């Protein structure tokens, strides 16, 4: 997909703040610092629309980005970050659950995991949550540039097995550095639009 326009629409914490448009949405879930912002920026050919941070746990709202006036990427707060209070984590959990379980425009969840390591307990819990609510799931294994190409398949297999993925769920390799997997990712997203 050729991206000609992209912008942040709103940072929302409750449903009445969500954009009131019928366009399809793709939510990005993943632990803090896994590369959600880098994924968004690479997909839309922008350096810093989605702000990357060296401080994990920075995203505390649902950030809606509009692309080509045709779809939204929704960046949800990262999980698994210890320096956030339990109260705050619970509030994020409720906010994320409300969005995932009540949003008609949501076409699929993109679960972003780090290809270099087996998915964490939190990644598995998120995958199970999406499965429980029967939400379409696309697993994006980022940071592919940090692993020799010859080991990609081995790492993808570990990801698929650790998450106990359903056969029909997509698992894509991605690099925010090199753009590896970008065209494939757009191809998969188009199927859900």
TrEMBL record:
Cofactor: Mg(2+)
Classification via Pfam families: MMR_HSR1
UniProt domain EngB-type G: residue ranges: 22-193
Residue stretches spanning the membrane: none
Biological source species: Peribacillus butanolivorans
Keywords noted in UniProt: Cell cycle, Cell division, GTP-binding, Magnesium, Metal-binding, Nucleotide-binding, Septation
Molecular function in Gene Ontology: GTP binding; metal ion binding
GO BP terms in the entry: division septum assembly
HAMAP family: GTPase_EngB
Taxonomic superkingdom: Bacteria
Family: Belongs to the TRAFAC class TrmE-Era-EngA-EngB-Septin-like GTPase superfamily. EngB GTPase family.
PANTHER family, alphabetized: ENGB-TYPE G DOMAIN-CONTAINING PROTEIN (PTHR11649:SF13), MSS1/TRME-RELATED GTP-BINDING PROTEIN (PTHR11649)
Its job: Necessary for normal cell division and for the maintenance of normal septation.
NCBIfam families: GTPase_YsxC
GO cellular component terms, semicolon-separated: cytosol
Matching SUPFAM superfamilies: P-loop containing nucleoside triphosphate hydrolases
Claim: Signal is one of the keywords in the record: no
Annotated protein name in UniProt: Probable GTP-binding protein EngB
């Amino acid at each position: 997909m050729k991206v000609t326009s992209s912008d942040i629409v709103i940072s929302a914490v409750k449903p009445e703040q969500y954009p009131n448009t019928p366009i399809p949405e793709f939510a990005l879930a993943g632990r803090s610092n896994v590369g959600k912002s880098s994924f968004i920026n690479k997909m839309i050919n922008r350096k810093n629309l989605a702000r990357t941070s060296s401080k994990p746990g920075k995203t505390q709202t649902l950030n809606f980005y509009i692309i080509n006036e045709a779809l939204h990427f929704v960046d949800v707060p990262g999980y698994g970050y210890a320096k956030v209070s339990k109260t705050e984590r619970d509030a994020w959990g409720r906010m994320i659950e409300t969005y995932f379980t009540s949003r008609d425009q949501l076409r699929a969840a993109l679960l972003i995991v780090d290809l270099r390591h087996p998915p964490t307990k939190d990644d598995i819990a998120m995958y199970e949550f999406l499965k429980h609510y029967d939400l379409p799931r696309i697993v994006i294994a980022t940071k592919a540039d940090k692993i020799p190409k010859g080991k990609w398949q081995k790492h993808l297999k570990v990801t698929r097995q650790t998450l106990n993925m359903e056969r029909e769920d997509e698992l894509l390799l991605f690099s925010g550095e090199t753009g590896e997997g970008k065209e494939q990712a757009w191809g998969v997203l188009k199927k859900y639009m």
